[in-house]
Specification:
By secondary structure, the protein is an alpha/beta fold. The protein folds into two domains: about 100 residues; about 130 residues, no CATH class. The protein contains eight helices and ten strands. The longest helix is centred in the N-terminal third of the chain and has 20 residues. The two termini are about 15 Å apart. It is an enzyme of class 4 (lyase).
């Protein structure tokens, strides 16, 4: 069995935390540029240009894209034939601690949700772990800001609501969110599973690149339809009016119980931060 040194994981996670906060994805940059061409509002066009300028400043000067550097959400894919020296969960949290400290990233995590004080190093991380064949470790760090997370929602719908009920819920959630999640947004939708798993699906959906459609043609069409409906709401960039309210909509699904129909919406702000490394 292959063993990965403890410090390798720490350093990898630290770099991912900093890179995710400094460097916006190429897919987002292209979506901004395409958005400028499609946007009908002059104010909206100007905002999109400013977002491009902000991304360039963050990249050049290695400063955070946003003052809210987010909760460190980690998607961990662990090969069956690899082990992490010293324990992978501890190594990931030490990596988050190092990244947020060395990178001068804002620390936002309270040690207790009601009575706690700031942990001072942005730990502990939220870690979603899956097992996979092979001897590799795949780590994705997706810092999640509070503003967009607060606009997310899980709804236990009735099976009879069907896909039209899902569409209405997603569009209504975006409409109620308005300018709060710093549009243009990326919308993750989870359908199926259970109460807690559907929220994971919605967040996992946000890891896809702009334009990356669901492999099922049915859900791919729903994604495109939802994007059009959302961009017809008139919220626009930063909520100041226009067509480019969302950059994309992604759907992830899972089998469900015959009596339940869970649906979740997880909204990302325009920076849509996530970086991946394979060790």
């Amino acid at each position: 069995m292959r063993e990965v040194p403890y410090q390798t994981i720490v350093d990898t996670v630290a770099k991912l935390c900093m890179d995710a906060n400094y460097f916006i994805g190429d897919d987002i940059i292209q979506a901004f540029k395409q958005g400028i061409e499609k946007e009908e509002s002059e104010t909206g066009k100007d905002i999109l240009r400013q977002l491009l300028e902000n991304a360039e400043i963050a990249k050049t000067e290695k400063v955070p894209l946003c003052q809210d550097c987010g909760f460190a959400v980690v998607f961990l894919e662990l090969g069956n034939d690899v082990r992490a020296e010293g324990g992978i969960i501890k190594a990931i949290n030490d990596g988050v601690r190092k990244g947020y400290t060395d990178g001068y990233l804002r620390k936002s995590i309270l040690s207790d949700p009601v009575k706690g004080k700031n942990t001072g190093d942005n730990t502990p991380a939220i870690i979603h772990t899956t097992l996979a064949p092979g001897d590799k470790i795949k780590i994705t760090v997706a810092p999640k800001g509070g503003g967009s997370e607060n606009m997310s929602e899980v709804k236990m719908m009735k099976p009879a609501d069907g896909i039209e009920g899902v569409k209405n819920f997603v569009v209504d959630r975006v409409l109620r969110s308005s300018s709060n999640p710093c549009p243009p947004i990326v919308v993750g939708v989870g359908i199926g599973g259970t109460f807690e798993y559907v929220a994971f699906l919605a967040k996992k959906a946000l890891l896809r690149n702009i334009g990356d459609r669901n492999r099922d043609p049915f859900y791919a069409d729903v994604e495109k339809e939802l994007l059009e409906k959302i961009n017809n709401l008139g919220i626009g960039p930063q909520g100041l009016g226009g067509r480019i309210t969302a950059l994309d909509v992604f759907i992830e699904t899972h089998p469900r119980h015959i009596a339940s129909f869970p649906v979740a919406v997880n909204i990302n702000c325009h920076v849509a931060r996530h970086k991946t490394a394979i060790i």
